[in-house]
Design goal:
The relative contact order is 0.12. The protein is globular. Strands 1-2-3-4 form a four-stranded antiparallel β-sheet, with no helix packed on it. Helices cover 7% and strands 48% of the residues. It is built from four helices and 32 strands. The protein has a domain of 178 residues: YVTN repeat-like/Quinoprotein amine dehydrogenase (Methylamine Dehydrogenase, Chain H, 7 Propeller).
Length: 394
């Protein structure tokens, strides 16, 4: 890496959409710095926890981060492993996937937790995976692409939308390309595809409440689909079509206190709220958010809490019950200390295994196409993230 690239690279912020707030700590998966960090919500001081030793690639979007009981689970987006961090023991366990997946990219779109198992659904790959997170091992591997192809007589570019729901002994996800719900039964390891009536397009996002699924469709309607009856019981118009082709769509749904929150692919200023009691649609950003950073992006929501982040290393917690900001903190860190963490111990750069290129913001670059072996592959990144390319050789 030349000096100019090095200077550019180390301007990358460690904060991205992969973080979780547990008690008074913010856990951050900064895989572009090959590490797990944490910062307290009071002063924001960033502390290094551990490295991902088995990972030989550097990219902001290597992992999808989830918390399960006392374990942080790092699921592969572009990574070649699954990692588990025990919060009580302070230990990281890494499970390489090279012996399970060969040519298929392990790209996670959804997870579902059932009976101490984490089921991992692919975005574009063939296989869904069972993770026994307590015993730290891979269980069943199911070729869901083959099952999908046998049912629809065609494969998929993208399997399902963001969001899954566990109802009794059933996992439910919505198809991205088809007007269908996929019901998966973990104990039997079987699938049922259910057509959503009155619907002809694929879905964008899903959220479950009680025995109902709230699924945002590409036609701009939220279909309230009753699981027991297997039918649509209500349709809610959001005021506009999804417009997935130019990324002007809502990719996550959260429901709290009779309000539907739709979170966009782009910045939080496009957030939309629907009052279920009144049926009113509000696209205006609350005043207490307008006065804050203008470059806020959605991180995740958990019950009455919504967590946002910015490119300026700012994390904010919103109380949906009180409809106000709960707390906000700027992540504080030392550039020189961060540089020490990414030391190339295995000489991967010198040996040509990893080529590091300049970092770039993707505020204006959302979608690009790469060509390999005559096949075009479309890559989509979330706005607000900062990407560092890592190109693998050999």
């Amino acid at each position: 890496m030349n000096a100019a690239d090095e200077r550019e690279y180390y301007r990358i912020t460690p904060l991205n959409s992969n973080f979780r707030v547990l008690k008074d700590d913010i856990y951050i998966c900064a895989s572009n710095y090959n590490g797990l960090f944490k910062a307290d919500v009071v002063n924001g001081t960033l502390k290094f926890i551990t490295k991902f030793e088995c990972q030989n690639c550097l990219d902001m979007n290597l992992f999808l981060m989830e918390s399960v009981e006392n374990t942080l689970v790092f699921l592969p987006i572009f990574a070649n492993e699954i990692a588990l961090y025990d919060l009580e023991a302070g230990e990281l366990c890494e499970i390489p996937l090279s012996n399970i997946y060969t040519k298929d990219i392990t790209n996670t779109s959804n997870i579902a937790i059932c009976d101490d198992k984490v089921w991992i659904f692919p975005t574009k790959g063939r296989y869904m995976t069972e993770l026994d997170y307590k015993n730290k091992r891979i269980g069943s591997v199911i070729d869901i692409y083959d099952i999908y192809q046998n049912f629809f007589n065609m494969g998929y570019r993208i399997l399902g939308v963001n969001g899954s729901y566990v109802y009794e002994d059933t996992v439910i996800i919505a198809c991205w390309e088809k007007p269908y719900m996929i019901k998966f039964y973990p104990k039997k390891k079987t699938f049922i595809f259910v057509k959503v009536q009155e619907c002809n397009l694929g879905f964008c996002a899903l959220h479950g409440e009680g025995e109902n699924i709230y699924a945002l469709n590409d036609d701009g309607y939220i279909y309230v689909w009753n699981i027991k009856r297997g039918e649509v019981v209500k349709k809610i118009y959001t005021g506009e079509e999804a417009k997935r082709q130019n990324n002007k769509f809502y990719r996550k749904i959260h429901i709290y206190n009779e309000r539907i929150y739709l979170f966009p692919f782009s910045e939080i200023t496009q957030m939309k709220t629907i009052d279920l009691k009144l049926g009113a649609i509000d696209k205006k950003l609350p005043q207490w958010l307008q006065s804050k950073n203008s470059d806020l992006f959605f991180g995740y929501a958990d019950k009455n809490k919504m967590y946002l982040y910015s490119n300026e290393n700012h994390v904010m917690c919103v109380d949906l019950e009180k409809q106000c900001m709960d707390w906000g903190v700027d992540i504080q860190y030392d550039d020189a200390e961060l540089k020490k963490i990414i030391v190339d111990d295995k000489n991967a750069i010198q040996n040509g295994l990893i080529k590091e290129s300049r970092a770039f913001l993707v505020n204006d670059l959302l979608r690009f196409t790469t060509v390999s072996d005559g096949k075009e592959t479309e890559n989509v990144f979330s706005r607000g993230d900062i990407i560092h390319n890592a190109i693998m050789y050999g």
